[in-house]
Design a protein that fits this description.
The protein is an alpha/beta fold. The chain is 37% helix and 19% strand. The strands form 3 sheets. It has an 8-stranded mixed sheet with strand order 3-4-2-1-7-9-10-8, with helices on both faces.
């Protein structure tokens, strides 16, 4: 472990999309000599409609497996890297590496190996441009079959990263116990950065992206969502697990125990304060820090007498879903499990049949078209009335709560709604707990419907500054017929 405190910097795909962005990255690194450990993603989109390098590499592999021609997608990968390398003055290196990759594509290579080459090539290019030492994570990060990182990875990383100067370690991948390249899930470069930060005992882990930190909600859903300057590790974990895409949800784990701060910052606005994790902080006046959510979910509800007493039945059920559960709610005679459609695919009814065969339940219900919303905040479990506020806000907007899971983690309350109601629900809950971020007319209900319920159709942020929650003010403001 290095004696001097150092900073680990992970840069996302948009931060490395072209030579102009990479020069911004170099300037950020040069501005603080403690920024010695750099974790790059693969180059991201340069503009709307521009494909990500990783997607092109997946396409190359899939076409090869189907016996098709992958020359066109590979030519786009090649052009991306060569045009950037030419501008940065490292063209010869990239030409050699791309020629080697082209030969490897002709061989039987795994999908993980091919997908990882975006980070690998970007790391090679960045190390050459910065004059740093390139370290291949396949030689240091060991990943088990279940996707977990083996503990010896920290020791090996610390050894490989010992010495003077800068080190560049590509994100997103490592190797399995057999030494074959294995990738994390998408966005896994965040996790690589966290592993490096823990291995070297970093002063701070800086995660550089294209937004100035965490916001109180997804701004695409809640226009006007505000920055969050401080967040606890547990809050960040809950938010990223349930939809906040600013950080990979597993990147919090390696850093929470050693209490290494995570600082989410903007490559395009490096002077912005961003969001920083803290171990403890005072509870906010309304206890809520931010709201996150996701769509594309299915609930499977199993009903069986005394299910809670049948430990073997519960274990069998969890074994059948194989770690795919996003949320779980249990009762005396029932258990509801929420799964991602992307993981469940078209197998919902098949899974229900397997549950019927294995558990002999009284009933199995499969409910599709669901969304989850997490109301997250330090101290939320100790605050009276949070659930009542949430239900009232949703009822005022005509939204039915399909299920709820209150404060299992003591920092969050999760509600389930129909996907068609998701955006309206997000905006209503944000208005109730964090202030109105958009006019009620934009929430999604027709103006005539809002009028029938006696709700003011237009409500500005200024109205919420008079000291009352937005929906309280709405109830006191009648719309003239």
């Amino acid at each position: 472990m290095d004696p001097e405190p150092c900073i680990v910097c992970k840069f996302g795909g948009t931060s490395l999309a072209d030579a102009k962005q990479i020069r911004k990255v170099a300037a950020i690194i040069a501005s603080d000599p403690r920024r010695r450990f750099i974790v790059p993603s693969a180059p991201g989109k340069r503009f709307d409609g521009d494909p990500k390098v990783t997607d092109l590499l997946y396409l190359c592999h899939d076409l090869k497996q189907q016996g098709g021609d992958f020359d066109r997608p590979f030519a786009r990968v090649r052009e991306r890297f060569l045009s950037t390398a030419r501008d940065l003055g490292v063209l010869e290196l990239m030409e050699r590496d791309l020629n080697r990759l082209r030969r490897q594509l002709e061989q039987p290579m795994s999908r993980d190996f091919i997908a990882s080459r975006g980070e690998y090539l970007c790391g090679r290019m960045l190390a050459a441009f910065l004059g740093g030492t390139f370290v291949d994570p396949a030689d240091a990060i060991k990943i088990a079959n279940d996707g977990s990182v083996l503990p010896q990875s920290y020791h090996v990383l610390a050894e490989r990263l010992h010495g003077e100067g800068r080190f560049v370690i590509p994100g997103f991948y490592g190797s399995d116990v057999a030494g074959l390249v294995k990738t994390f899930s998408r966005g896994g470069s965040d996790l690589t950065g966290a592993l490096v930060a823990r291995a070297i005992g970093a002063l701070v882990y800086e995660n550089w992206t294209d937004v100035s930190g965490l916001l109180t909600a997804d701004p695409r859903v809640v226009p006007g969502a505000q920055p969050v300057r401080e967040v606890t590790y547990r809050e960040l974990r809950e938010l990223t697990h349930l939809g906040a895409t600013v950080l990979h949800d597993e990147a919090v784990f390696p850093l929470r125990e050693p209490q290494i701060p995570i600082h989410i910052r903007n490559t395009n606005a490096p002077d912005d304060p961003g969001t920083r994790t803290v171990t403890h902080r005072a509870t906010k006046p309304n206890a809520v820090t931010a709201i996150a959510g996701m769509t594309g979910l299915t609930a499977i509800t199993v009903e069986k007498s005394l299910l809670h007493c049948a430990g073997e039945s519960s274990t069998s059920l969890l074994r059948l879903i194989d770690g795919r559960c996003m949320s779980m709610d249990t009762g005396v005679d029932s258990m509801s499990l929420v799964l991602r459609d992307s993981e469940l695919g078209d197998n919902g009814q098949q899974l229900a049949s397997e549950i019927r065969h294995a558990l002999k339940p009284d009933r199995v219900l499969v409910t599709t078209g669901l969304a989850l919303i997490a109301i997250v905040g330090h101290g939320i479990a100790d605050r009276v009335g949070i659930a009542a506020q949430a239900f009232r806000a949703l009822a005022m907007t005509g939204i039915k709560v399909r299920f709820t899971n209150h404060c299992q983690s003591r920092v969050s309350m999760v509600v389930g709604v129909a996907t068609k109601d998701f955006e309206r629900a997000m905006r209503s809950l944000h208005a109730e707990f964090l202030g109105l971020a958009a006019p009620i007319a934009d929430v999604g209900r027709p103006l005539e419907t809002a009028t029938r319920h006696g709700i003011a159709a237009l409500m500005t942020r200024k109205s919420t500054e008079r000291g009352k929650p937005a929906l309280t003010l709405l109830r006191e403001t009648r719309v003239r017929p």
